[in-house]
Amino acid sequence: MTPAALYDVPAPAKLNLFLHVVGRRADGYHLLQTAFRFVDLADTLSFERRADGVIERAYDLPGVASQDDLVVRAARTLQQATGTSYGARIGLVKRIPPGGGLGGGSSDAATTLIALNRLWNTGLSRRELMALALPLGADVPVFVFGQSAFAQGVGEELAAVALPEAAYLVAQPDVSVPTAEIFGAPDLTRDTKPVKIADFLAYPNAGFGKNDLEPVAFARYPEIFRCSEWLKARLQTPVRMSGSGACLFVEFATQARALLAQQEITATMRVAVNSATGTTRSAAPEFRLIQACAGLAEHPLWHWIAS
User: Fold this and answer.
1) Region class of 85: left (phi > 0), else alpha (psi between -120 and 50), else beta
2) Could you tell me the pTM of the whole model?
3) Residue 206 pLDDT class (50, 70, 90 cuts)
4) How far apart are the C-alpha atoms of 118 and 97, rounded to whole Å?
């Protein structure tokens, strides 16, 4: 029996374990190679079926009009593709920070496609939903794909990869970064030599390759660079930026180690002055987000779609 509503539906964040810009098409889209991994930091959505075809947004996104909202656009895309007479009242609780390079908006759109395909009983396959996802944004298809992936092209050529268990400390400096600004920068490297999947699988973690967008984001947003250097010195481990920023992440072998790092950074942020002695500590940068996240083997909604 098809449900009339779906609640607490997750939309997980993603990390780019590496991100190489290997070229640019005539239409301006960049050709990329990257490895996507989902983490358990997630937005949650709710969907209540309507019989009148109306798509109702039961939440507010400051500065984002309904017609520009990826969630609303995804719902209308599925309506138009399937001809369903149903609509939906959609709720959204944001936990993934915007302007962070974690794919929050793309993930919300993908979860909307997956959930409404179930709620409306429209019966599209994973491949059909991925085809609807791509015009919504280059990162949307991987969330429908639902597995850790090696991606090429503009992000639509996806190959599933098995990644070792890992956890991550995710940190967002006190800035948001517009993706278009970074990709449009004249100083962006656009000719990194392509790699093979086998190259990545020989070293399948955040130590592989680089993020070609980092130098551009660091130059335009010095706070990201400062936070990266501070985390690197504090944790004595490599730090990488996800996507176009501003979020940074550090990889750990276990969730326990990531949680310890989170506690250490949080304590440093809270205590700049020792009240007993009056001595000051090195002041931590401002962060909007400091969170230990488990790496996921697959999207939480993987089994909601017929492959």
Assistant:
1) alpha
2) 0.94
3) confident
4) 27
Tell me the C-alpha distance between 276 and 283, whole Å. 17
Residue 76: per-residue pLDDT: 98
DSSP, collapsed to helix, strand or coil, labels residue 110 as helix
Q: Which of 14, 43, 69, 212 is catalytic?
A: 14
14: annotated active-site residue = yes
Residue 280: what pLDDT?
55
Q: Which residues contact 51 (CB under 8 A, 6 or more apart)?
A: 85, 86, 87
Tokens of 136: 């919504």
Residues in the chain: 307
- Point out which residues pair with 171 in neighbouring strands: 248, 290
H or E segment to which residue 115 belongs: helix 104-119
Band (268; pLDDT cuts 50, 70, 90)? confident
Which residues lie closer than 8 Å to 110 by C-beta, 6 or more apart? 11, 74, 133, 140, 141, 143, 144
Of the residues 43, 69, 108, 139, only one is catalytic, namely 139
Structure tokens at 129: 């939903």
| Residue 293 · residue 39 · CB < 8 Å | yes
C-alpha 290/C-alpha 252 separation (Å) is 15
pLDDT for 155? 83
Cα–Cα separations (whole angstroms), residue 37 to 147, 209, 271, 297 = 8, 15, 33, 8
Q: In which element (H, E) is residue 112 found?
A: helix 104-119
27 tagged catalytic: no
φ, ψ dihedrals at 27, nearest 5° = -85, 5
pLDDT in tens, 40-58: 999 999 999 999 999 999 9
Where does the pLDDT of residue 238 fall: very low under 50, low under 70, confident under 90, or very high at 90 and above?
very high
306: tokens are: 């017929």
Instruction: Tell me if 171 sits within 8 A of 41, measured CB to CB.
Output: no
